[in-house]
Fold each of these.
Amino acid sequence: MSTFEFLLQGLVIAAQPMNLFYALIGVTLGTAVGVLPGIGPALTVALLLPVTYQLDPAGSLIMFAGIYYGGMYGGSTTSILLNTPGESASIVTALEGNKMARAGRGGPALATAAIGSFVAGLLATIGLAFIAPFIVKLALVFGPREYFALMVLAFVTVSSAFGDSTLRGLTALFIGLALSTIGIDQLTGQTRLAFGVPDLLDGIEVTTLAVAMFAIGETLFIAAQGVKGPDKVEAVKGSVWMNRADWARSWKPWLRGTVIGFPIGAMPAGGAEIGTFLSYAAEKRLSKHPEEFGHGAIEGVAGPEAANNASAAGTLVPLLTLGLPTTATAAIMLAGFQQYGLQPGPLLFATNPQLVWGLIASLLIANFMLLVLNLPLIGLWVRLLTIPKPWLYAGILLFATLGTIGANPSVFELGMLLAFGILGYVMRVFGYPIAPVVVGLILGPLAEQQLRRALAISQGDFSVLFTSPIAAGLLIVAALALIVPLILRARGRGEVLSQMAANED
Amino acid sequence: MKHIILASLLAGAMALPAYATDYTLMAPAAPGGGWDQTARSLQTALQQEGISKNVQVINVPGAGGTIGLAQFASQQKGKANALIVGGYVMVGAILTNKAPVTLKDVTPIARLTGENEAIVVPASSPLKSVADLVAALKKDPGSVSWGGGSAGGVDHIAAGLIAKAAGVDPTKINYIAFSGGGEALAAILGSQVTVGISGYGEFESQIKSGTLRLLATSGDTRIPGTEAPTLKEAGLDVSVQNWRMVAAAPGLTAEQKAAVTADVQKLVTSKTWQETLKTKGWQDTYLSGAAFEAQLAKDISATETILKDIGLVK
Amino acid sequence: MNQGPLNKAGERRPDWAALVIAAVLVAISGVIFFDAARLREVSGYSPVGPGTVPMAIAVVLLLLAVWTVIAAFRGDFPEREKQEVQPVAWVIGGLAAQMLLLNTAGFSIATGVLFAATAAGFGKRKVWISLPVGIVLCLVVWLIFAGLLQLSLPAGPLERLFQ
């Protein structure tokens, strides 16, 4: 049978009413758990995997795919509505999405996230089916020096989330970088900045920092405004649905997000959040409405959300073709596959075509069910914002701490949550942007480790960093991204550019 | 009992005899990792075989399991129904982190599973055998980069032991630590590093498809279905296994310890557990009682020596 | 964090709060220097060792502190709105109470206290209503996540009734 026939056969099986029902249950459960701040897709899949064991292989595979996509998507809802990203891949979504929600445009923001996720998931799954072997070759070319160059590029793009002051943006970034060095140094096993506290040996959990700085910092900041503001937010201004202009401004970012997210997801050390950073920066540079960035630009939701979902499908490329679990989520999926007798690896497509294509068909169906479930729910979700403030924020803190306790029920972790929450509040008061702290915590260790690995392999020869064509190319792009705006500013367009710079809060 | 009813609706009712102990089982790792999977498989097997009516898994992640271990030793002292999952990684982590609570502070019950380390090279590599690898190491240890898991972990220890057995200064090995999962494998497949060292399961499908060449494995016997020698057969006196175990709380009476040991014994011989081993691809290395305690003491002292030799522990 | 005097337009007074921030940055930088200095350079093959990157971060933080001082004297920091202290204290108190109660009183009671304290911070001071509501809500959450999904959420006296 040909590739196409296998896929068609898989789709026919997956589209049976009972299997559609399992997909719906999977998506619902995945969204319900994934929506909790601090519980990302990895934990969602780990928690819900046993539920699928009770079904027949086809049904459980489909429900599993539903849980995976549901968990991926769940994080964006809270990001947009409550400014509390559920996981690192939806931090960028909060930047523009929450601004939209506060302006009464939460509906279109959720819609562009859902449809963007669907489009990206669809294209990336098709990509998985047809160009996986090519993509995986590209991914393997990436060694430590290429990753280092990619991280340099990511650092440069971070500046687009700096807000209106370079000083405060850089300070926030370097506070994040300083936090990122806490814990055991992976390359030498030595502890840094832990001062004998065992709870710090593993470093600071990204989700803890993100939940603390966004959810708790935000709650404190709003509380400190006192009761002078209105008791509730106006949830819907204009249509709850996307209008013509929204569509026109969304479709290109969806496609670009997919193109950026898919290959980066396929790279063993890429990670979903890198794709979202790059997509956000790209949209900001390409947008016809750059002045809206920082005040709720729909492109800033559409692009990163698409990139996030495309990279989720991208993760499956090395997993299925090489048996390489490149993220925590993928590692748990690997455990899941083994339950179905699937041994991912180079021989998988040859030895087990039915199961592979069944999985891919399940992913397509699950992706579709996600849209079916979430579009009608958008009206309901935005109603969340009409809950009176006291109960809304009490609920946010309940679920934010639930996520943290669920991942690690330790008093120390809650103490860090509180400390970083206060830090997030103080930074808001003084006009510091929040996102660069979290970005620094994510990118810092990646860049440092890849640099040191590259230099160890070359036994101290710095020239290796520039001699690979891919690494050199990425570094040139990074240099251009840094220099071009400076030249433009020097040529008297500084005012436009400083308006472009997003004001985060 | 509301959640039990709900759980049965979702998970399917199980026949539960009424007499057994309710165990609490600590996985000193985040949900999803190896120890967590071991704990959750134990949970399923203990419940399904009716050895325990209700088993609760508690995750306490952090620092190679040492945080969970410390919490377990202090909070569960003297409780006969508390168990913790652990393994060889913990031995190394206790030493490198200078953890105040060690395996001496709990009651080891039994070793459950184990995995041999595999030493691999890309198919295109000029290194064809362990002898080639040793020759390259002797010529210039820095030019041989080893890709494996985190520093001070079992992969790093095995690389150090190989160098030492080959007569090369273990501090001179060029070990490149990667974060777990597939990152090391990707670097090996992309020929970014000279040789890869990690658990056999991590490389299995690549070895079978011929993209990686297996030079040797680290156990006492060969892995069935492979042709590569053990390190001992290849002339290097090295034997390492990454094992997982289960331990009970400190301060138990002899009877309590015997009861727990009996329950674990019942578990490992059960059909459910044997099937779990098969589906997960875990090797059964069950060892309990005095024999396990002696082996554990031996592993700890050997690990301490090699970590000092590599220069990770002073 | 203490409140510096607000800048009035046209006045060239240093922004004291910004100077405090600069001092904090210097302190962080000092801690990193102190810590990085004691690291051993064990990986002989990479010239960038475990201490190099922390050192670099510490240097940049020092430079940023200097920049912050300059900005403080030039009045470059944005004006700050008046912050109400009492609601913030309620929320922080709620989080602290949850942290301290979690392992003894269990998830529902500890988080119920947080719930009521947060609501109080936002103006709903009728604790005799919000506390029971919060505890019941948290218990339902506990039953779903700990009971059904096997998440390890600490159990207290209330949860043990359902075990």
Note: Chain A has 20 helices and two strands.
Amino acid sequence: MSVTEPLAGNIFAIKRYALHDGPDLRVTIFFKGCPLSCLWCHNPEGLNFGKEILTQVDRCVGCGACQASCPTGALSQGPHWRDHVRCTVCGICAQVCPALAHECIGQTLTVAQVMAEIAKEAPFFEGTSGGVTFSGGEPLAQPDFLLALLRACGQRGWHRAVDTSAWVSWEIFQKILKVTDIFLIDLKHMDACEHKKLTGVDNVIILDNARRLAHSGAKIYFRMPLIPGLNDQSTNLEHTAEFILSLPIAPSIDLLPYHGTAKNKYMKLGRDYPGENLHTADHKAISQAAALFQRRGLTVRIGG
Amino acid sequence: MLPRIARLRQKSLEAQPSISIERALLETKFYQENYGKHSLPVLRALVFKDLCTHKSIYLGADELIVGERGPCPGAVPTFPELTCHSVEDLHVLNTRPMTSYQVQEEDILTYAREVIPYWQGRSMRERVFAQVPDEWRRAYEAGLFTEFMEQRAPGHTALDGTIYHEGLLDRKARIQEHLQRLDYRNDPLASDRAEQLKAMDIACDAAIIFAERHADLAWAKAKDEADPARKQELLRIAEVCRHVPAHAPRDFWEALQMYWFVHLGTITELNGWDAMTPGHLDQHLAPFYEQGLVQKTLTREQAKELLSCLWIKINNHPAPPKVGVTAKESGTYNDFTNINLGGVKPDSSDGVSEVSYLILEIIDELALLQPQASVHISQKTPGAFLKAAAQVIAKGYGYPALFNTDTVVLEQLRVGKTVEDAREGGCSGCIETGAFGKEAYILTGYLNVPKILELALNNGQDQLTGIQVGPRTGDARNWTSFEELYVAFTQQLTWVVDLKIRVNNYIERMYAMYSPAPFLSVVIHDCIEKGLDYYNGGPRYNTNYIQCCGIGTITDSLSAIKTHIFDSGALGMDQLLVALNNNFQGHEVLRLKLWNKTPFFGNDDDLADDLMKRVYESLFQAIDGQPNTKGTSYHLNMLSTTCHVYFGKMLGASANGRPSGQPLSDGTSPSHGADRNGPTAVVKSLSKMDQVKSGGTLLNQRFLPDILQSDQDLDKLCQLVRTYFRLGGHHIQFNVVDTKTLRQAQERPEEYRNLLVRVAGYSDFFVDLDLDHQEEIIARTAQEMT
């Protein structure tokens, strides 16, 4: 990108009326691409850094418009059989499809374009703690773009939350620390090996960043995806509680019970679902986990 | 719930709606003997007096507030002078698949013998229909508009606080004063005014007689009552009924009974639309409540019990049943008594009091169909009150609806009301704005706005029948720009509005001449002073509304035509017309393209929202300021109630990809399924409509229960509402149910009798709605985001 071009990033969704991504009413900006690969990821369309085409077979009416207009013949076997070698993800199939069966995931947006979208929601922030949440994917994986957005939001007085895996270098955190109001950080597992098995990366950097953030006075909402059998053992929950209690912050945790609704999305993306064998957290398991944290003196919220 | 209230509530819920022919028999006999002997206002007052003197009265066990329109709870009279049920109508009402109105076989025979023959050719409905021009009839039959006054009298009446300070005897004194002052030498209407004032005087006597009869009944029952506690209550009831409505009420109990007698009077005299409503009941009752607590003559519990009794009384009163096709198809019993809570007082201070909270508790506990409650939120309304309302909303009864006091006041200032009268005003019926106690704001009928576009696209022909209904405004296939289309649309619009108003003015004069309402005129400001009837320009303010339906459907249709035909050129007008005329049969790909690839209203997208603004402005230009019969004018409001379903049936396939026969968008809500960016985007789109220029708008939002569980969820709902109102929204209401529950209710209606859903400006039992309306509620976009 040349210096004269405006700063832009890859965004895969902008969700208005986001109720569970921080305080009050928010708009959530989803950055495309994530260095982690959590088994349960419920936004698989945000994993890859590049654009993708998502196809919903049940919507297809067989009109043939996509095949006829595909410049590379990637759909020559049929509208649902994408030849990923030939496909250049140009998005024409999505443009021409009358039934919204093909959908292009990810678009390059400038800071000004994203700010214009956020501005639409700004009346709802007035007089509340509502604002913008940058999520993903991993927003810190596009640090310059994120920084520019956070600064621009700050100039307008909008509340800023950054939802991050925290698996990035501290240097990046240092830059955005001053322009972020709240960090939402997942504690997926306290054991480094288990963490690596579940997410593809270990948790040393994550915990270290969390500690440094807390000591630097940042406001943090810790969240924990609750995956039965994988991270809801009482020892892990105890360790999680201890970690939070060791930090100089008001101790709290949001429990995010696992649900299997993402499976469908993997299918539409033409990928295997790595969470095939996961179980939905039942009501009992959730209340047990909540009770454990409450006993340790944490404020617990369920569902973010 | 107190045991007494539980028993009364149960009885009310079990009361089978039924038709009482008593009123019709008394009235027919009276007309037969007296028609021609008196002026019409006096005749109407004497009929009312005869009814009040002779109708069966009812005082049930446990009751504290007394009086019924019919002989018992659930019984509703007919009004043959306006519209006379045929024998077939009565059979239909008795047997229709939706919950019916019971009619005794014997009564049907009596009706056929005693009532029907007299009113043949004499009822208002027959006289109106005998006179309307063919052009009007064709437009009416094509479903371009409805006519409100063909089955019920003009209504939408609400009261201000005057009845709590002035008894009917005080009003009689004022009437006499004005009779004395009449200037027969210089005022050519003086003798008309005299007749009207005499009629009002008789009407006051009638209502007092009615109350006295209840006092006598209570006294007689007390004599025979063995239970000493009930005996005391009956004696107290007798005392209350001797005092009100003749005199101003002295305490909380009397205030409630005062209102109830006035309410019953107005709905016995005529069957005005949307019955009657007390207006800002919490503000009216607050002084009595506080006085009772200070003097230790009233406790919070007692106040709640008495208020609950009023609530149950209102619920005992189903709407008067319709005739003809409406009797077959309309399943609603709701008589639209809509109580306003909160808001501001005339002096601009906050209107919320302990009584407001008390009423919210009652709404929650009783969960009745009627009355409906509207919570008015101004900038001054405390957050706690909005939150308390949100807690009731989250229960999923479909009420209370939320209104923006600040916009409601501005709407009224715009049309020239004083700021005090505007603040004392509010919303009645569904969402209609009026100055309570001082205004006749007559709804005249719904306008099928997408059908007007259909006429434009078909050179004035009805797409469904091929009949030439409107003027020939050009062949759409020759248009080369969107502007040409829009000109044709506005020509059709002007034609239809003009036609509607012409006939409506005629009907209004018929009511003013032949069906005055002297009792209603007594309780509405300035009728006594002017010596004019409520229907004849007597009230301080006189407004006519035309309710415009389908703003979402027409905006999306225009957007589709603009996008695909005139902007991109990818689609030909001929191709579109062929597809529409074939109801998209064989054109499904085109239909999907129109539906999925067009900017639609409700997404905070200016491409669509600017078209909405343009249509709204055209409607405003066509309607606002048109003269009515009272020297004032018509205004628009944006309401469909349930008419979007009927209008949808009368509309062919539309350019937004909507198949023929499907409902229009409701109220000012986006088309079903067209809003894809969540409720904040909907609210933003709606706020681009300059709602102050309307007499009310209606926005439905369906929420699933799981996003309204925690305290924070409710705060977020309140934030959504506050923002919409800060942006100028008039009204918003929420249906809090999930699709699964609604489907289960369709399968096993008996288990879901109490499932209340928001239909339009009111809630109804889901299982009482017909299948089309049920499907329509399910189709409203659920805001199911997590």
Note: The first strand of chain B starts at residue 18 and ends at 20.
